[in-house]
Specification:
Layout (H helix, E strand, L loop, with lengths): L4 E2 L7 E8 L8 E2 L3 E8 L2 E5 L2 E4 L5 E4 L5 E5 L5 E8 L1 H5 L2 E2 L2 E2 L2 H9 L3 E4 L6 H12 L7 H21 L3 E3 L9 H10 L7 H7 L4 H12 L3 H18 L4 H7 L5 H12 L11
Parallel strand pairs: 1-3
Antiparallel strand pairs: 2-9, 4-7, 4-9, 5-6, 5-8, 7-12, 10-11, 12-13
Helix pairs in contact: 3-4, 8-9, 8-10
Amino acid sequence: MGDVEKIGYLNNDFEMFHIIDSKKKEFDFHYHDFNKIIIFISGNINYSIEGKNYSLKPYDVVLVNAGEIHRPSIIDNTDYERIIIYVSTQFLNKYKQEDYDLNYCFERAKKEHSNVLRIHSIDKSKLYQVCQELEHSFNDNEYANELYQKILFLEFMIQLNRTAISNHINYLDSVNGNTKLIPIIEYINEHLTEELSIDKLSSQFYLNRYYLMHFFKEETGYTIGNYITEKRLLLAKNLVQNGSSITDACFQSGFKNYTTFLRAFKKKFHTIPKNASFID
């Protein structure tokens, strides 16, 4: 994806990490093909996600949807501590029924145009208690630990979604967001399956096409073409995982040429699309 790298690989339904960076470091823009949850604990951090910028406070919960470009910017040498959870979109889709959907918190984040939940007294909440128990489960080998770990993770996701539904939380507004970039990204994602040429985008936003290309690459690390292709590939992957045929997934995700689609899919996911097996 241009200079933007897909980092992190998920070979299980979910993974959990507790990380502390004690020295200031630089992070490049990157993305994942799975969802990411960050519980921010400490540090002086500005978090950028798809053109939006958030000034984080301790115990903010950051929700990053699969395919969203993001990076933290560390302001000073204060310890940057966080809990990170990777979760497979396919796994979450298994827990979607008429009366519940464990993907709700991510979907609402899109609807609210905000990736950050600010939860008052989260450190005293059931959500954080379960989070700590889940973290502990990665370090023990007690009886039926794998099953217990899955139960804890499901409880964590239930508590997170209950919190997202609650009226006692805030979806944090971005600060110093790029007012020119955000509507372009939102337009692309809302019209992903339609024609999205450079000329059409430059006309839509009254921008010179060469300025638009340079501006987008400078602000995101992506070329516009690579950004659109990657988003369409992730959509196609999701469609196939949910039962669509390969041909339907190709054209329903915005590709016009089946051969081009197969070549791009194989290059990204290291496999030809099948209805069952993927490398995440």
